[in-house]
Write a structure and sequence with these properties.
Oligomer: heterodimer
CATH architecture of the largest domain in chain A: Roll
Order of helices and strands of chain A: EEHEEEHHHH
CATH superfamily of the largest domain in chain A: Beta-grasp domain
Number of strands of chain A: 5
Number of helices of chain B: 19
CATH class of the largest domain in chain B: Alpha Beta
Strand content of chain B: 15-25%
CATH class of the largest domain in chain A: Alpha Beta
Shape of chain A: globular
CATH topology of the largest domain in chain B: Aldehyde Oxidoreductase, domain 4
Number of domains of chain B: 3
Strand order of the largest sheet of chain B: 10-11-8-18-15-16-17
Distance between the termini of chain A: 40 Å
Number of domains of chain A: 2
Strand content of chain A: 5-15%
Radius of gyration of chain B: 27 Å
Distance between the termini of chain B: 37 Å
Number of helices of chain A: 5
Structural class of chain B: alpha+beta
Helix content of chain B: 25-40%
Largest sheet of chain A: 5 strands, mixed
Number of strands of chain B: 29
CATH architecture of the largest domain in chain B: 2-Layer Sandwich
CATH topology of the largest domain in chain A: Ubiquitin-like (UB roll)
Largest interface: A-B, 58 and 66 residues
Radius of gyration of chain A: 15 Å
Chain lengths: ~150, ~750
């Protein structure tokens, strides 16, 4: 039994300790917004926040999350109106959309720490997230836009 | 701007619910037989309930091309519906919709007319209904934005729908279709992705996300070599893994591969992790079969020999031997493009459940499939279900996390149905990344030889292009040896050259070959468009001017005159002629927008390539800078003529995606086999381009009145040659083999 907080809710998951957090979230907690892409931490589709840090849930054992606070895409905002989500819609970023929840989690973690990221900052934070459809230019534009909105509202 | 669908409507529209909600309820055939509420449905694609809410069927699969956000616009626009009162519903696989096979960049061109008509049928009937109510001639009634108007009287569609439903459905030939000027949604630049909100909130449902009551998860250990089989196995440790329920032997695959299951051993478990762990603990002795003789590296010699001795000439004009004799210069170059995997971000996944309802066997499937009808046939084949019972095999289409042709091959759907039937359980089959990379339907490695001659005025006097690859045909007929498909990027070339010979070699095939986005255009256009640049260089001319000159005067290309039976992507040449003016136009547009110049500092260069594929005309200009083996893509300009444009933003996104897909295959795309076993397995050894490597991509759309054509694939073929031509312009290095293994994309 692993106790952790998921999207603000104390949760107990009955899973083996070595089960990657991704499968615990998807199969047990029934939160399927975090995606499987590689199982090796090299594509970023499974990105969640663990105590505020963007991490790859597919290579993070659930036991690591014991006592920690996890935010998934489902908990990023109440109404889907986080500045990053809004910017994603404004720029019509998604094509197939499969990798986008991971992209958004990486981008929102970046903006939480850096409200005015340069191209290089964006590259560093986002190069771990693959998009096969090819939405990179729009992701870059949306992050810059979200940074502006975030700055204006803070 | 389009209003988004509510969450509730989305659930209705896909039949899928997130988390532990039981989506099975909505699809239970027993419930479906209960009294249906009122529904005015004059056409299979559009219906209206008594509140005036319109439901438009999306019968094509959404895999990122935006088809769910595009085709319904046509219907709603023609109907004069208020977009806020429209729900888009994903269709089950059913022949009543016509082909649902979402590949070949053909959703728009194949459905444009009939979807406009579907909207017009309903509009016409509502107009007639209003005319009846007001006792006036229908010609006096105006229909606009969900309302009928006559003088100062106004009625909402909801107040007309019952009257309309009693009228006879008009003949299609009598319909008045809206003109372009009358359109409200079609062609608007900022139409939102209909699934956008669900995507950014993580609620969008893909094949991987399906969750039905008491569902189990299966992963399969497939034979490492195609047509291999399990010789013996030991599953003792597998069964010990907590959560593992069963190990099931899959039927052995026999040629032809087709869309059949690959065989192997399936591990069925309570959850994904248990299934994966259980599979790792299987001890399997494989009989690899005869394809174990194949190694990509060794087969290169076979390919090259075949290339030197082509067996079939598919297009012939003049006499290339004579041209050679009178030529001032003869240039020959050989090109190679490696094998490729689809690498959809979401690997294949399918869920199936078999139930008995009133003594009838019903199979329900949820899958990320590009082709629900083929999936349906495949399931019927696996379960020996006769054709007349097709309605009892219900294929629900989820969103697809990428397709690129992989998900039009429903082997994985058959696996789910087989396992559900064998276990009497609802089973979701998931492919891991390694499964996807190692058990694909690959784009074949290819070898090509081009020879061109220049006359005394440096004009191209002959063009020879030979190609050999493992043909897709071999997947369906093991006897197929002749390289394919020449129609895609080779024999369909539109160069004005007096002597032409296009030839194909033969070889055997040892793996499953399939179509990957733009198919053989990838390798053919790479070779042909690189070679044009090589000829331009020898001729001492500007590459762009040389290309325009080579295409020559305005004309409709007459392939038949050269004895070439060009398929024209299955469309009549009279309706979709190959027009050189349109090809030249996109070249000029891309060059102009990119500020085309050869006057750049050392280490910086521009390259250009253009092709007509999938009936659309695309030109690409790439600018690069190089530093030793480092390459940086500085800018990309793409010009596209795809006829009338329905959804400009999604056209742009397809061009952006094509360029980035092209960058991945140009720098990294290489699938190889050793002893029949694929050597790559994940994104570490089958890499993708990343955000830091990709600049902004500028798309320029030609305003055209031509019949609309597709954009999912044609942006890809010219990218890699434009890139390599740019590298040549930058540093004088000519790259004739993809991927560019010795270069480093920064």
């Amino acid at each position: 039994m692993i106790k952790l907080t998921i999207n603000g809710k104390m949760t107990e998951l009955e899973v083996s300790e070595d089960m990657p957090l991704l499968w615990a979230l998807r199969d047990v907690a029934k939160l399927t917004g975090s995606k499987y892409g590689c199982g090796k931490g090299i594509c970023g589709a499974c990105t969640v926040h663990i105590d505020g840090q963007a991490m790859r849930s597919c290579i993070t054992p659930t036991s690591y999350a014991q006592g920690k606070s996890i935010t998934t895409i489902e908990g990023l905002s109440e109404q889907g109106d986080h500045p990053v989500q809004k910017a994603w819609l404004k720029h019509n970023v998604a094509q197939c959309g499969y990798c986008q929840t991971g992209q958004i989690m990486s981008a929102s973690a970046l903006l939480a720490q850096n409200n005015n990221p340069s191209d290089e900052d964006i590259n560093n934070a986002m190069a771990g997230n693959i998009c096969r459809c090819g939405t990179y230019p729009r992701i870059r534009a949306a992050i810059k836009d979200a940074a502006k909105t975030q700055e204006a509202s803070s | 701007m389009i209003k988004k669908l509510s969450r509730r409507k989305f659930l209705q529209s896909t039949g899928l619910a997130s988390g532990s909600l039981m989506l099975g309820v909505q699809f239970s055939p027993a419930l479906a037989q209960s009294d249906e509420p009122f529904n005015f449905k004059p056409d299979v694609f559009v219906s209206m309930d008594e509140s005036g809410q319109v439901t438009i069927i999306s019968h094509r699969s959404e895999m990122g091309q935006g088809i769910r956000s595009t085709l319904p616009l046509l219907v709603a626009d023609e109907l004069e519906a208020d977009w806020n009162r429209v729900t888009v519903k994903q269709a089950l696989g059913d022949v009543k919709y016509g082909s649902q096979n979402t590949d070949g960049s053909r959703s728009v061109r194949k459905n444009y007319q009939k979807l406009k008509e579907a909207g017009a049928i309903m509009r016409t009937m509502l107009q007639q209904a209003a005319a009846q109510v007001w006792s006036v001639d229908a010609s006096h009634v105006t229909i606009k934005n969900h309302q009928a108007k006559y003088q100062n009287q106004v009625m909402d569609f909801k107040d007309l729908v019952k009257v309309a439903s009693k009228l006879s459905v008009p003949e299609r030939s009598t319909l008045r279709l809206k003109t372009e000027a009358e359109q409200r949604y079609v062609g608007q630049p900022d139409m939102a992705n209909i699934d956008g909100h669900e995507i950014v909130t993580g609620k969008a449902m893909y094949g991987f996300d399906v969750d039905i009551e008491d569902m189990k998860v299966a992963v399969i250990a497939r034979p490492p070599v195609v047509f291999g089989k399990v010789k013996s196995y030991d599953a003792v440790d597998t069964i010990k893994v907590p959560g593992v329920l069963k190990v099931i032997e899959m039927p052995t695959l026999k040629p032809p591969a087709g869309f059949n299951m690959l065989g192997g051993l399936a591990v069925v478990a309570e959850n994904t992790w248990a299934a994966i762990q259980g599979r790792e603990k299987l001890k399997i002795e494989w009989d690899h079969g005869t394809n174990a003789s194949y190694s990509t590296q060794d087969h290169e010699a076979v390919f090259i020999k075949a290339l030197e001795n082509p067996k079939e000439v598919v297009r012939n004009r003049g006499d290339i031997a004579a041209a050679k004799e009178s030529a001032t210069k003869t240039i020959t170059a050989e090109y190679h493009v490696a094998g490729l995997a689809h690498a959809t971000m979401e690997p294949p996944a399918a869920t199936a459940r078999v139930t008995q309802i009133d003594g009838k066997q019903v199979v329900e499937v949820w899958a990320c499939t590009q082709t629900p009808q083929t999936a349906q046939n495949n399931v019927m084949g696996v379960m020996n279900i006769p054709k007349e019972n097709a309605a009892d095999v219900k294929i629900n289409v989820t969103l697809l996390g990428g397709g690129f042709g992989r998900k039009s091959k429903p082997d994985y759907v058959a696996e789910a149905a087989y396992l559900a039937n064998e276990t009497n359980m609802a089973v979701k089959v998931l492919w891991t990344r390694e499964d996807e990379i190692r058990h694909g339907y690959y784009h074949s490695p290819s070898y090509q030889k081009l020879t061109g001659t220049l006359d005394e005025k440096n004009r191209v006097s002959s063009w020879y292009h030979a190609m050999v690859n493992h043909p897709i045909g071999a997947t369906f007929d093991p006897a197929a040896k002749t390289a394919g498909s020449t129609d895609l990027g080779q024999a369909d070339m539109m160069f004005d050259v007096p002597n032409i010979k296009i030839a194909l070699g033969e070889t055997d095939t040892f793996m499953r070959i399939g179509w990957v986005r733009s198919v053989t255009n990838i390798n053919n256009v790479f070779a042909a468009s690189s070679f044009v640049d090589e000829l331009a260089h020898v001729a001492g001319q500007d590459s762009k001017d040389f290309l325009l000159e080579l295409i020559g005067k305005d004309r409709t290309e007459d392939f038949a005159a050269d004895g070439f039976k060009y398929s024209n992507y299955g469309e009549p040449a009279e309706q979709y002629p190959a027009e050189t003016s349109r090809l030249k136009n996109v070249i000029k547009l891309a060059a102009e927008k990119a500020n085309w110049t050869t006057d750049l500092p050392d280490g910086t260069g521009m390259g250009i390539a253009a092709w007509r594929s999938f009936l659309s005309y695309i030109a690409v200009v790439v600018k690069v800078s190089t530093d030793g083996n480092k390459v940086k893509i500085e800018g990309v300009h793409m010009a596209v003529d795809a006829g009338k444009i329905l959804n400009p933003d999604r056209v742009k996104s397809q061009m952006e995606g094509s360029a980035i897909f092209g960058a991945s295959l140009a720098f990294y795309g290489e699938i190889t086999a050793k002893n029949g076993i694929i050597e790559q397995g994940n994104f570490n050894d089958y890499q993708m381009s990343r955000i830091n490597q990709i600049p902004d991509i500028h798309t320029h759309i030609v305003k055209s009145d031509a019949i609309p054509t597709g954009v999912g694939e044609p942006g890809l073929p010219p990218f890699a040659p434009a890139l390599c031509n740019a590298i040549f312009a930058a540093n004088g290095q000519r790259h004739r083999r993809l991927p560019l293994k010795y270069l480093n994309l920064i």
